Amino acid sequence: MLQKIKLICIPYAGGNGYSFRDLQPFLGRHLDMVTLELPGRGKRITEPLLSDIHAMTDDLYRQVLPHIRSPYILYGHSMGAVLGNLLMHRLKKEWKTLPLHFFVTGCAAPVFNHQRKQRHLLPDEQLMAELKEMGGMPDALLEDLDLMEFFLPVIREDMKALECYRYQALEKYSTAITVITGTNEDISDAQTAGWAHESEKEVRILRYPGNHFFIFHQFQNIAMLIRDVALTPHHS
């Protein structure tokens, strides 16, 4: 009988424990999905927001420890991919079990982090226009000023953490990476190839149609890739 494998997900800026709920139906019975959640949202709404990428990584590290006693796969989108990479380096440093595979979507390699736009500094209206263009939020939400009054500070702090992060090269980890970006994203081939700085194993690069939030239309295909890794016998 196949052993159950955990899929541990790390959300994008502004995301929460429900960000990947539409991925779950496609995963099949051999994968248990766990979505980590940062303070200031979802079930942790009463906790103060973090605006430092390393403090966020520390928080995720504490959350992930109970879930990595058995085989697992790690998946992060956008900010979640940067956090996932820092988490991988932390797990390696602490001699913890690394995942079978690391899935990255919508994210240039961290070595290019200094090239990010400084969106966290934009006035509210411009930031909302950027969010609309990226495709991460439904128009109905963007037009609901009360909801946006709650969401914008969360997104802004997350973006600040991401955009102020200064990359430092760390010793490579030994987990293969699959990197998927949208065809209409502002991410170059060189920026995806840069993920090879992080892992000594294979880095597979794919492109799917769509903008930064192409994942919402591609969860079935992403799930197929994850299931292929989970069902590969040599991981038992």
TrEMBL record:
Where the record annotates domain Thioesterase, the positions are: 6-227
Known SUPFAM superfamilies for this protein?
Answer: alpha/beta-Hydrolases
What are its GO biological-process terms? lipid biosynthetic process
Recorded hits in InterPro entries, A to Z, give:
AB_hydrolase_fold, TEII, Thioesterase
Pfam families reported for this sequence: Thioesterase
Family per record: Belongs to the thioesterase family.
UniProt protein name: Thioesterase
